Structure formats: C-alpha cells, structure tokens
Inverse folding.
RNA sequence: GGUCGCAUAGCUCAGCUGGAUAGAGCACCUGCCUUCUAAGCAGGCGGUCCUAGGUUCGAAUCCUAGUGCGAUCACCA
C-alpha cells in the first residue's frame, strides 16, 4: 500500500470516528515548500459532509492521524490545509525498497491484449523531414511508455507507396534521369528520388506557363499539362499491373526504403512490423463491398460509394470512387483490418498522425465501428501539432524543408563544438568521441521536441540553434554523467548501510526520495495521456533537485561511511531513474561528457 | 460559414481529476571553480494567465459568448 492510500484510509476513518460521516474521496497534494510538512490534505472538500470550521476540523483530523498512523510524526494547519509531516524512516524504507531495482518505475506486463502503435507514414517519393522526425519520436516514445506501463506493444508503420505522387517522381526519373542510381551518384536513395519529385514539379510548372502563354487559363493548363497526363497514364498502368511500370516502381521504392532505413537507424527508432498501402487497399475494397451489402454504405448514381454520417453530426464520406478505385479511407479501412488479422492479440491501435487529419480519423473510427469491429472502440488518434518554420509550412516540392539527416548531423556537430570548447574528453578515442557527440546531439533534438505537449504546434527556427543548457537533453545527460563519475570514485562497502530508525535525512535527500517516489505514477499518467512530455518534465524536475543536492551536500565527503554509502546509493538510484526515463524518450545517456 | 485545436513573463514552455502568494529555462543583472565534472549551483529582474460574463467556499484550470492564430470541411493523401 502506498503512503497516500494509507493516509486516505486513515483520514476517512478519522472523519467517521470524529463526525460519524462518510467521506468518499480525500484530496492530497504535495506540501508547498514554504510550509512544514510533506503531504497536505485539503480540508475544504470535507465541508460538504462535515459542517464546521475548516481549521478546527484540520486540527482534529491531524491529531487523529498523529495518534493512529505510525509514519505521521507531526502536523500543522494553515487555513484549510492540513500539512502532515512524515517520518524520515518512511522515506528511508521506501528508498531501500527500490534502490536495487534497475527497472524501477516500469510495471510488469499485466495485460495480454496488445496495442499496436503506428508512427511514420511516409510517402515513398521524398526523404524524411523535420515533420516526420516529430512523428517518429512521438510514436516511438509513446510505444515505449505504453510498454513500461504494462502493456504489450507492437510498433508499426504505414508506407504510402502507391498513387499519383509516386508516379510523378518515377516519370521524372524516366524522362530526365539518364539512368542515375544511388550507387552511380553516391546519393541516398530517398534523396535521389526526392530530387526527381522536385524536378517533376519544376517541369510541370514550366509546361503550365507555356500553355498559359498559348492562351489557356491557369486552371485548364494545370489539367492539360502533358507531364501530368502522362503521370496519370502511368498510374493507370500501375493499377493494371503493367510489367515495366511495376518494375520501375519496385526499383525506385527500394531505393527509398534503403534510404529510410539509414535515417531511422540514425535517429535510433525501429519497428516490429511494416504495412504497405499497395498490400492493403484491396482488402479495404472487399470490406467496402461487404458494408454496401449490410447497409453501412450506399451507392450513388455515378457508382461512387459513400457512408452517411449525418446522424453522427458529420457529413457524407466517400469510400470508393465512381471508377471503382480506392481512396485514402478505403486503404485505411483495409490496413486496420489486416493488422488485426495478422496480430489477433491486438485489442487497440494508436495512430500517430498530425492534427490536420483529425477529421479523417474521426470518420475512420466511426466507420470501423459501424462495420461492427469490436476493437474499433479502442482506436486512438495521437494527434500532434505541426512543426512550422518561421517562413511558414514546410513544402518538399519547394525545397523549404529541414531534412532529417541534415538536422541530426547539425546537432551532432554542435555537440562536438561545445565539447571541444569545454575540453573534458582529451583521453577519449575518436570513435568514443563521435559516439558521444551523436548521443548528446540527438539527446538535445529529441528532448527539445518531446518536452512539449504533443498537441501544441512547434515553431522551429533553424537559425536559433537548439539549446544545450537549462531545460534540455544535454543538461540531463550531464547530470547522469556526473553521477557516473561519482560512482566510479565511490568505492563503497555494500555492508555498511544506514539504519532506518533514528536517522535524520537532509532536506535535499528527502526531496530526492520524494521525487523518485513519483516515477511509477508519472509513467502511468504519461501512458494514459499518450504524452512523453510528462516524462520529460518529470526527469527535468528530478535532475534539478539532484543538482541542488550535489552542489550543496558533499556526497563522497560525508561525515560517516554509512552516510556516504547512503548518498552514493541515492545518487545511483537517481541516475538509474534518469536512464529509465530517457529510455522512454528514446534518448541515450553517456558515462562521461 | 460549419466543426476541431491552441492562447500563461521579452522568447520557449510547465501548471495532474478546480485549492495556499501562478512556476521553470533562455535572455538580462549579482555572486560561486586550491573541494565529488561550472553543459552546474545560489540569488535578482520580469505576469490584466486573450477579453467579458457565469458556476463555486475557491477558477490559469469548468461552462457560455466573443477576439486572435492554426487546421479541416475533396472522387488529394
């Protein structure tokens, strides 16, 4: 039983004994620093059940707790707040119970029903950019957090590998590529293909300009440009299974996949399984046909198939074009169903997708419910805000994107510069240094993105580099490294331990233990809210508390061996917790920096 | 226009199911490296919590209306 659970029972007992009344809930909060005490009970809500002066009630309840609860060693009442002082031995015992747990905070898997988390839904016609980076970091972290909260998790992605946009880069390569390949040019495959996507757009625009000059309207020209017509032809050929087109499609997509793999590895994320739209859109069509039979969908005169959602306060939504081809919704229906077929233990899914698609997912989930899938009620759209540049939205075609690989490299370079200035790593080998720069640079980037509430948009200014001081990844990594340094020098005798009775904890020590105590609950909260930001903020608070302890209390120079060993152990637990928390954010921790 | 989201210090952000005098970091100013790593610590400066009503013993937090910004409402994805 946790301290709070114990106190809750006892407060209820107090109210029953003193006022013969039943209290449903008790409201707790951490005692503010300016008052004496550790835990505070708010008296005001009790006034609904017990009539009287809150200060007097507080006094009476406080006295009851003092008399009946061993760990309560004092109390004071300020206005309607009952501040309870907890004995140091309680905190010491708690610390003893967790100090050797390397997985402190993580719950055991206690649920056979798995959750599938989807993140990264790239188009295979251009490289990954900063927007994808937020998506990937968020999804990966939420997956790790769900695992740590006791869930079984599959990490997956959906790859948007078909459609007109893919044909555009294929066509441009065919037309202007002169047989270029990643190996002939030394370019990453995704970059190479992305160049031809841009090339298509340029050529397309100049064709439009030509047609406009010949007297066509802008609108006509956009539809009639030969390049676009050719791309559309190519799509039709693809859908018909034309050998040459399919071969080209396979070849170029493979270049892109190889490039993506490098980027994912670079960022440090992975997947358990992959889904391709080209594999699932047909299944979607099947279920549209089935839904048509069962009356979930209806067909319009032109042959297009729709779902009427007006009763649910939404509009009608198309699920199949009049020419019978699949739309986005069709393949998403197919993908969802395919996943449950492949992994029958999956009982719910999390889709990490930007908030521009809020409406799409609202509709998708509703349609899956209407189709009668039990698991449809456990679908969650992890909707996150866009990453914008000072100049506005990023646009691949116009080249105004922050490339993912470049970004990681820049962060690594910055870490190197700062490290060199500080000059603490003279004895490190080149390899060790490079690994460390990467850890720090990625730590800065990931923390910067994950510490903000997912639903808020991020304004990223490439000119103002990401900080390495204050509330940042490197600051937290630095604290970890500092603790490792102490552990290397500590030389403690495991047999010498602090007695749990008759000890007096330093205020900073107690604050640290209290902060550690919160970790398991923070993980549960973060899982429920799908928010890595809660983990980031918790870790920052823990580290700030530790640095204050470190700077104000001598660890290795403690008065006695018992005290020294305790402080070393406490530091070790803090570093273990930092490591565990950062693991949930996908951030590594260095032994030195 | 309908719907959804956001609005807190000069800037970037916390603020849990409503609770005490709204907190951090950056920037700016003051101190602290002969002591465990100064990517640090201690302190200072800085607020009509977008506005107006309402609910409540009590509102940054909940409700209503409005303002601003963004997204969305495609036989695009």
């Amino acid at each position: 039983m946790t301290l709070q659970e114990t106190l809750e029972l006892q407060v209820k007992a107090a109210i029953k004994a003193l006022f013969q009344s039943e209290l449903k809930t008790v409201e707790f909060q951490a005692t503010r620093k300016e008052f004496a005490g550790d835990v505070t009970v708010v008296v005001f809500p009790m006034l609904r059940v017990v009539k009287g002066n809150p200060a007097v009630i507080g006094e009476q309840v406080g006295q009851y707790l003092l008399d009946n609860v061993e760990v309560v060693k004092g109390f004071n009442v300020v206005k309607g707040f009952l501040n309870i002082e907890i004995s140091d031995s309680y905190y010491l015992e708690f610390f003893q119970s967790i100090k050797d747990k390397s997985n402190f905070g993580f719950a055991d898997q206690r649920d056979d029903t798995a959750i599938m988390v989807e993140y990264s839904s790239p188009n295979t016609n251009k490289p990954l950019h900063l927007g994808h980076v937020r998506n990937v970091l968020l999804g990966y972290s939420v997956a790790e957090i769900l695992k740590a909260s006791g869930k079984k998790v599959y990490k997956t992605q959906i790859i948007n590998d078909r459609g007109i946009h893919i044909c555009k880069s294929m066509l441009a390569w065919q037309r202007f590529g002169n047989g270029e390949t990643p190996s002939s040019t030394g370019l990453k495959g995704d970059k190479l293909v992305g160049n031809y996507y841009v090339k298509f757009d340029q050529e397309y625009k100049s064709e439009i300009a030509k047609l406009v000059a010949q007297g066509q309207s802008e609108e006509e020209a956009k539809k009639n440009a030969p390049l676009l017509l050719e791309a559309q032809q190519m799509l039709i050929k693809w859908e018909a299974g034309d050998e040459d087109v399919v071969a080209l499609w396979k070849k170029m997509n493979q270049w892109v996949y190889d490039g993506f793999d490098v980027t994912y590895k670079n960022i440090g994320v992975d997947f358990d399984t992959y889904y391709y739209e080209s594999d699932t859109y047909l299944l979607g069509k099947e279920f549209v046909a089935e839904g048509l039979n069962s009356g979930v969908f209806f067909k319009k005169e032109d042959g297009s198939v729709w779902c009427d959602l007006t009763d649910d306060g939404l509009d009608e939504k198309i699920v199949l074009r009049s020419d019978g081809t699949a739309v986005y919704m069709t393949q998403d229906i197919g993908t969802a169903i395919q996943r449950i077929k492949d992994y029958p233990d999956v009982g719910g899914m999390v889709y990490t997708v930007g908030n521009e698609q809020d409406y799409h997912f609202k509709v998708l989930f509703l349609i899956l419910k209407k189709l009668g899938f039990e698991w449809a009620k456990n679908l969650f759209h992890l909707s996150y805000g866009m990453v914008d540049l000072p100049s506005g939205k990023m646009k691949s075609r116009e080249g105004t994107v922050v490339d993912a690989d470049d970004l990681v490299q820049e962060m690594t370079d910055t870490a190197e510069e700062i490290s060199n200035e500080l000059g603490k790593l003279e004895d490190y080998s080149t390899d060790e240094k490079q690994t460390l720069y990467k850890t720090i640079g990625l730590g800065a980037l990931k923390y910067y993105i994950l510490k903000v509430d997912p639903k808020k948009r991020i304004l990223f200014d490439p000119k103002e580099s990401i900080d390495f001081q204050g509330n940042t990844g490197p600051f937290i990594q630095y604290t970890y490294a500092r603790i490792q340094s102490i552990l290397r020098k500590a030389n403690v005798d495991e047999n010498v331990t602090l007695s749990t009775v008759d000890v007096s904890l330093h205020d900073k020590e107690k604050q640290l233990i209290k902060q550690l105590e919160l970790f398991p609950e923070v993980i549960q909260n973060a899982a429920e809210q799908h928010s890595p930001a809660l983990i980031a903020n918790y870790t920052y608070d823990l580290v700030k508390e530790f640095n204050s302890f470190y700077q104000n209390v001598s660890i290795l120079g403690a008065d006695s061996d018992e005290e020294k060993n305790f402080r070393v152990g406490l530091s070790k637990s803090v570093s273990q917790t930092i490591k565990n928390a950062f693991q949930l954010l996908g951030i590594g921790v260095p032994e030195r920096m």
User: Anything to note?
Assistant: Chain A is about 55% helix and 10% strand. Residues 41 and 287 of chain A are 55 Å apart (CA to CA).
